[in-house]
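Quick start: read one record
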Amino acid sequence: MVPLLGLVQASAVGALDPVSKMMLAGAVVCAVLLFWILKSTFSAPVSRSTLRRLQTYVDREENLSPLERLVERAEADTAASRRGRGQRSGDLLPTVTKWLGNSRIRFLNSLSADLARIGSNWRASEILYMGIFLGLLVFLLVGVLLKRAVLGLGLGAVMFLVPVTWVRMQAKRWTARFETQLADTLLLMSNAMSAGYGFQQAMAMVAREGQPPMSDEFTKMNQEVALGVTANDALSHMSERVENADFTLAVTAIQISNEVGGELAPILRTISETIRERVRIRGEIRILTTQGRVTGLGLTALPIFMFFLLNAATSPDPATHERYASPLFNGKVYPYGPKLVVTGVIMQIIGYFFISRIINIEV
């Protein structure tokens, strides 16, 4: 922050060369453009012609049957709750968003699924926009203005991955909460059915008395059933959304029971006990592999930490004004320096990958 303020002050007094001034102006433009993208995306207005077209559907309620009126009111309540969380009514680049939504790129499809799973109003294209502009902004500030091209490129790549990493972390937290509630939910449904409730009533009770995210997912499933979707299809849709192996097992058992008949409550109780045992075993494995995870992180971070520590602790050479790490990045004078850096990074990645595979035990 201090070098950046110094550059801004220097540019104010005309101390920077024209190229640096141009790059600084480009960085400011990128920041303004990023702010405009977010503002435009969040506050896209609805035109009056659109409101007039929607007025026909607003006046339909008086011609609906009581059941249809209840369904539409439930949909309106759901839409209102989403708008309360900041739902947008438009997109800045709809063509790009449509292309990304129809693409077969696994990364983009997985990102869209994670955003839908956590109930976020962001789109995959907007996460991509943010990552690109953050990466370009950091590269312009560090790589061009401060003339640290390698450092700027690395920080730009890191900033590009920050929004995606945030989405992944939120999705993992959502999955962890869902897995924690799954066994209790199946046991609750089993007890309700043993007490005389039907399967639909048990699902409605989970949606009404459960905790998010389980209650949210069962609410969506009950809304699909109310709109005419069969219970088996609604369960399949929910299984596709949550992407959880334990819940997929429970859905398969429920669907088989619905097709061939039989008492469902004992089956749900058995699945609940199995899931509890698997969660317990996973916790024990996580405790036993803690040393391996810490070792992997330590061995990966130690060379990077020592590099910055030695480079900061040593003073530049009085004759050449080179710092401790200069031979690693000066390819003209030291041809093997950049090659050693690339080789070291690749070996670190391979080592961390092998350690992660060793401690990753599936249950």
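The domain at 174-284 is CATH 1.20.81 (Receptor-associated Protein).
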